[in-house]
Design brief:
single chain, about 210 residues, alpha+beta, 3-stranded antiparallel sheet, about 25% strand
């Protein structure tokens, strides 16, 4: 939202000001005749250690800029990456906080996020769902032929869901397997699951 963007811009402005002051201070020392290169060299191993420690921080900071400008996700979005999934709660300069479905807070470094394949479900407009039905082998052929029409009639009773196909897909070890493909026109997972629940009950009742 706009308030969140204002806070981010304020933080970026503050960081930019710090960088400008540091660079300006170094120029001032150089103009006063102080050898900046000699000081840096004199730091020796300590300076190298600091540089290495700062490398990870700078990587996360760069990733923060990527997240801020590219917007792969925003606060409130539900995302999944690798084995983790949840809602974005906070995007910091070094890390991002994600509230998982089971309730715990997951803290992930920004560099890890930008290097991962992220699934953002906020952008989901139409959900494709595949499910199957196992029919007994002793079912009559007339009943098998009627199944696609029965499924089509049941799904047509519900809004936001459209049948793509219902086909006799394979012979299983213990059942004749039908594959049903539908499209659900909403990103709301709970709404989809409620609709699927109702459809399953109606299929059971009809069969």
């Amino acid at each position: 939202d706009k308030e969140s963007d204002r806070k981010k811009i304020k933080a970026l402005t503050s960081l930019f000001n710090v960088i400008v002051y540091v660079v300006g201070f170094l120029f001032l020392l150089d103009n006063l005749g102080i050898n900046i290169t000699a000081i840096a060299t004199g730091l020796g191993i300590g300076g190298i250690a600091v540089a290495l420690a700062a490398q990870a921080l700078l990587g996360d900071l760069f990733s923060y800029f990527v997240i801020f400008f590219d917007r792969p996700f925003e606060i409130g979005d539900f995302i999944s990456l690798e084995t983790k999934s949840g809602t974005i709660e906070q995007i910091g300069i070094k890390s991002t906080k994600i509230r998982s479905l089971s309730g715990e807070l997951i803290v992930v470094s920004n560099s890890s996020l930008t290097n991962s394949k992220i699934h953002n479900y906020k952008a989901l407009k139409r959900r494709r769902v595949v499910f199957s039905l196992g029919i007994k082998y002793d079912t009559k052929i007339e009943q098998l032929k009627a199944i696609p029409e029965i499924i089509s009639t049941i799904i047509a009773r519900h809004d936001k869901i459209e049948l793509d196909r219902c086909t006799f897909a394979s012979y299983g070890d213990f059942s004749l397997n039908y594959e049903i493909v539908v499209f659900f026109d909403s990103p709301d997972y709970k709404e989809y699951m409620q609709t699927q629940h109702e459809i399953n009950l109606e299929i059971f009742e009809e069969f």
